[in-house]
Design goal:
389 residues, alpha/beta, Rossmann fold, Rna Polymerase Sigma Factor, Chain: A, seven-stranded parallel beta sheet, four-stranded mixed beta sheet, 16 helices, 15% strand, binds nicotinamide-adenine-dinucleotide, binds magnesium ion
Length: 389
């Protein structure tokens, strides 16, 4: 039996993880489950799976969580510090399925104890890639990618020498608004941007798919995780979402990872790695799919991709600025304060404002530096939004 912690258990990736382990009785013992505000779902799953501890990120939820777990013998805790403590508890593998920069500290806590982190939370690497990779190296902690494109690259690299890699190609569906006339994008509502054509995911990443910010984060994630030069990472729009990523080698070979749009594949691969075990994902019928198409992303429609390139060129803690500004801009779009197309404007202006403070830094990256930069970038992005209204 292996022990498992799920950070962000109540979300889309968290629930898909629980679906997998519930189908595999007797294989997993649950150490900790964490959630944000959905205390009822957290308590239900903690009871159902026999977790040792359940933690909600929102301190106000502690009373309800305690009440919901009464008599179960399951420990209850709340707040960000309790979340990091839960992550630090020994477990064979911890899945990080928290959304946003809030995933950084708990993810690091897993690595600090030399643990294995199945990482869906791409923000961890975007905000603090050099720090996170250095800590993993120092402690013997291991990161297994769960983001589908990165899992695809990881799988294509199995048994290969990374030195032989020429390039990687990450695919993007283009999101909910891909076929909208460009002139209409500014009028897109939250509901419009939340209707993903292929993947069922949390609302924030779904909107990030429509704006291409998700792919922008993933390019940075790939650079940090695989140690690639930014020029080696390409993005192609692939509306069918069947090819998740491709790896090109110096002999000209291109290895593609092909499968249905079901995150349980990438999650299951990480959970069972290095073994391949049977997974309940649909088998792809390529004849039914018929044709696969690829195109170069339009830089005018999707400015987020060029912003990611600028962030990588600038270095320092600009990744943390980029993510923080994107989160604040997304909050403002969700609140109806700014237009869909204004999100990239907010991010671009925040990057410009923060470059002198967050750009190239000689000193090693620290958690305090990243958190301070994240905090300041949120203030600056908020000021920029205030001035837009
Ligand atoms: P989601 O919104 O469905 O779930 C997020 C989880 O994080 C929930 O459990 C929520 O309660 C928790 N959470 C939210 N705010 C928190 C906070 N401040 N502190 C602690 N916990 C908090 O999101 P999701 O779609 O499952 O995505 C999770 C992560 O995985 C994101 O980083 C996303 O980019 C990445 N990812 C998701 C998918 C997908 O298919 N959903 C695919 C690839 C990568
Ligand atoms: Mg992805």
């Amino acid at each position: 039996m292996r022990s498992l912690t799920i950070l962000g258990a109540t979300g889309s990736i968290g629930q898909s993880t629980i679906d997998l382990i519930a189908r595999d009785p007797g294989r997993w013992r649950i150490e900790a489950l964490t959630g944000g505000r959905n205390v009822a779902l957290l308590a239900r799953d903690a009871r159902r799976l026999g977790a040792r501890i359940a933690v909600c990120a929102d301190p106000a939820g502690l009373g309800d969580l305690r009440a919901a777990l009464a008599g179960s013998g399951i420990e209850a805790a709340a707040g960000p510090a309790a979340l990091a403590e839960a992550a630090a508890r020994p477990a064979d593998i911890a899945v990080s399925a928290i959304v946003g920069a809030a995933g950084l500290v708990p993810g690091l806590a897993v690595l600090e104890r030399g643990g294995t982190l199945a990482l869906a939370n791409k923000e961890t690497l975007v905000c603090a890639g050099p720090l996170v990779m250095a800590r993993a190296q120092a402690t013997g902690g291991r990161i297994l990618p769960v983001d589908s494109e990165h899992s695809a690259i990881f799988q294509a690299l199995a048994g290969e020498d990374v030195a032989g890699v020429e390039r990687v190609i990450i695919t993007a569906s283009g999101g909910a608004l891909r076929d909208w006339p460009f002139e209409r994008l500014a009028t897109a509502t939250v509901a419009d941007a939340s209707a993903h054509p292929n993947w069922s995911m949390g609302q924030r990443i779904t909107i990030d798919s429509a704006s291409m910010f998700n792919k922008a984060l993933e390019v940075i994630e790939a650079r940090e995780f695989f140690g690639l030069d930014p020029r080696q990472i390409e993005v192609l729009v692939h509306p069918q979402s069947v090819v998740h990523a491709l790896v090109g080698f110096r002999d000209g070979a291109l290895m593609a990872h092909v499968g249905p749009a079901d995150m349980r594949h990438a999650i299951g691969y990480a959970l069972h790695w290095p073994e391949r075990r049977a997974l309940p994902v649909a088998r792809l019928d390529l004849a039914a799919v018929g044709s696969l198409t690829f195109s170069t992303p339009d830089p005018v429609r999707w400015p987020a991709l060029a912003l990611a390139r600028a962030v990588m060129a600038a270095g320092g803690t600009m990744g943390a600025v980029f993510n923080a500004a994107k989160e604040v801009a997304l909050d403002a779009f969700l609140a109806g304060r700014i237009a869909f197309t204004a999100m990239s404007v907010v991010v671009e202006r925040t990057l410009d404002r923060m470059l002198p403070e967050a750009g190239p830094q000689g000193a090693a990256m620290t958690l305090d530096l990243v958190m301070g930069t994240d905090h300041l970038a949120r203030i600056r992005a908020g000021e920029i939004i205030d001035r837009m209204e």
